[in-house]
Amino acid sequence: MRLALKRSRIKTLMLPMAMAGGAIFYQWMGYLTFLSPYLIFAMLFITYCKLKISDFKPNRFEIVLLTSQMVLSATAYGLTFFWNRTLAEGFFICFFIPTATAAPVITGMLGGSISKVATYSLLCNCIIAIAGPLVFAAIGEHTEMTFMQSFKIILLQVFPLILMPLALALALRYSMPALHSKIVGLQQLSFYLWAVSLFIVVGSCVSFAIKNWSPASTKTMILLALAALIACLAQFKIGRIIGGRFGDKVSGGQALGQKNTVLAVWLALAYLNPLASLAPAAYVAWQNSINSWQLMRHERASRGLNTTKPS
């Protein structure tokens, strides 16, 4: 019992330790960033092994979330454009970008519906892949890239990490059920893979911010970081409110709040003022701080339930 309690406490501290470690050792992240897609692939594969094809059913939950995301994106841009265009671009992209590929993993850890978030992630990424090049052609500062070039790059950036682990998990379910069943029992492994991924992502974020810093851009960088924080808090909160109406606050919050920031940084560098890319880079730190807090709170609650003796 004591050993289990000690392991649970270590697990609770693992995420903030991973974030602190990434910030401290940011100079070495260049040697580790290549691991990120493999870690995400492994996490998604393990998580998707819990799903069946019948679990993917788009309904009003996804439509309401997607509509909210588009409205929030337009509002963020409209409110700040006439004040500071770079800030407007960074603020906009923090709302517009699609759900992170790892969102279903964190949702599963928090006890939400993996199928709902996975379905929304697929739908949202499809819409952004189509609408993204058109939107950025309208508001962007670098419009040399054609629609088909942008569409192809977005697809290559996103869909291999979403569809391949899903296809592999479904194939394994029907071809090798015994092995599939064993992998389903390894769900806790996703937590530790996430800790390693968090270490790399936070370190990369710190490294990116330091490399792009200059005295002249300090004020704008601070504003972009604050805008990212506002966008992050707003989307997690609004997502939870919407999710609550459909009986699943966790799934709503993760679907709307957890973003594909790697794609966002690339889109900002390709289409917008390069300085605007610091907003999604800051979003990495904010969303992972929220995820870490949620996971720590969920772990403590689970530990409390497990240690409570019946009267």
What key phrases describe this protein's structure?
311 residues; mainly alpha
Q: Given the helix and strand composition, which structural class is it?
A: mainly alpha
Q: What level of helicity do the residues show?
A: over 70%
What is the general shape? globular
The biggest beta sheet, please?
none
First-to-last CA distance: 19 Å
Low-confidence stretches: none
Content of β-strand: under 5%
Along the chain, the helix and strand elements come as: HHHHHHHHHHHHH
Residue-averaged pLDDT:
81
What is the radius of gyration computed over CA atoms, rounded to a whole number of angstroms? 19 Å
Query: How many strand units?
Result: 0
* Helix run count: 13
Describe the structure.
This protein is an all-alpha fold and 311 residues long. It has helices at 2-24, 36-48, 60-80, 85-96, 103-109, 114-139, 147-175, 177-184, 188-211, 218-245, 249-257, 261-271, 278-307. The two termini are 19 Å apart.
Fold blueprint:
Layout: H1 2-24, H2 36-48, H3 60-80, H4 85-96, H5 103-109, H6 114-139, H7 147-175, H8 177-184, H9 188-211, H10 218-245, H11 249-257, H12 261-271, H13 278-307
Helix pairs in contact: 1-9, 1-13, 2-7, 2-9, 3-4, 3-6, 3-10, 4-10, 4-13, 5-6, 5-11, 6-7, 6-11, 7-8, 9-13, 10-11, 10-13, 12-13
